[in-house]
Amino acid sequence: FPSHDTVSVKDFGAVGDGVTDDTAAFQNAIAYAQTRSVFGGGTIIVPSGRYALTSLIITSSITIIGEEVPSELIFNTTGAAISYQPTSSSQSLRMTISGLAFSNVTNVPSSFIEIGGGTHSAVNTVIERCHFTSTAATWCIDNNQGYGTYIFMCVFLNVSGGGVLLRQSAGLTDYSFVAKIEKCDFTGLTSNAIRL
Predict the structure, then answer these.
(1) pLDDT by residue (tens digit) across 125-182?
(2) Exposure string (b/e) for 101-135, b if CB count within 10 Å is 16 or more?
């Protein structure tokens, strides 16, 4: 395997033909990238392609970068497609997903990206330049006990389901430190664009 902080999912055997199950290749790339750099976060490049996946789990700092619409992740799951569940409560953790397109086949995911919801809250999450177009999910992004989440320049177009769900502790009324959503396009959703 490569010995640097930036790797491609192709380095771990991903095919990207829309048929071959690339879940193991992606999960191996994630496991490798989480061991890189001071805070355990390398960068994974997702080249242009259509990657068939079931679900992915992220537990530490990581950056995943695609080429926007040409880098399509096709999920077949009823749970969270990508689940960010930190194994520690460190404020230095950071997870970034940038430039990916999300879709599904057969099964409808509960969310494409779930932030937090485990033992520890997720902090410092960035979702940018991602496309959720002509697809189905209960929620595209489920911010479940995530703090400092930044959702920027994402497209939510013709989605059978909702855009962003912000779930926090009971009684919370100030969401300004929970999530910031800027310059996103919410068009043609069958449920709420943003729900508190």
Answers:
(1) 999 999 999 999 999 999 988 888 999 999 999 999 999 998 876 565 566 668 899 9
(2) bbbbeeebbbbbbbbbbbebbbbbbbbbbbbbbeb
The dihedral sign for the CA sequence 132, 178, 128, 117 = negative
Q: Answer left, alpha or beta for residue 113, where phi above 0 means left and psi between -120 and 50 means alpha.
A: beta
**Tokens linked to 156:** 């939510």
In the block, tokens 């695609």 appear at 66
pLDDT single digits (tens) 73-118: 999 999 999 999 988 777 668 899 999 999 999 999 999 999 987 7
- Other beta carbons within 10 angstroms of residue 161's beta carbon come to 23
89 three-state secondary structure = coil
How far, in Å, are 1, 36, 99 from residue 4 at the CA level? 9, 8, 22
